[in-house]
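note to self: dont lose this again. the chain is below, predicted strucutre after it. 140 aa total, dont forget to put it in the shared folder this time
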Amino acid sequence: MFLFLLADIVVVSRVNRMVTRGLLMRLGCEVTVVSSGRECLQVISQPGQSFQVLLLDVCMPDMDGYEVAIRIQEKFARHERPLLVALTANTDMATRERCLSLGMDRVILKPISLEKMRIVLTELLDVGSVNDNHWRARGK
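---
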């Protein structure tokens, strides 16, 4: 069983959050849901918490997914942190490039389907981060 932390907007996308959580559960994942970037950082900082993957909406309130990703990377060594997956409805290349340049491991475009989620997560968990070469070069 894989442990996921889903950080998504509460008010704007309650339905999206329920759908994403349901998709992860159908794939056999254990899911914890938070509603903000600050809450995400609080949960992963608690002793004994260990998530394999964080799904981060890039447009969360109070602290967006970009800032959460930066803070997680400051707090954890590369191979001690969860894999970071950006969730976004933005289809432009600039958003994808920004996510990857900030060290996120994958980007999933909304709307999310079961098959899309399965493919991205299987690839991520089998192959690892698209940024592995970047992190090796930096010595992390």
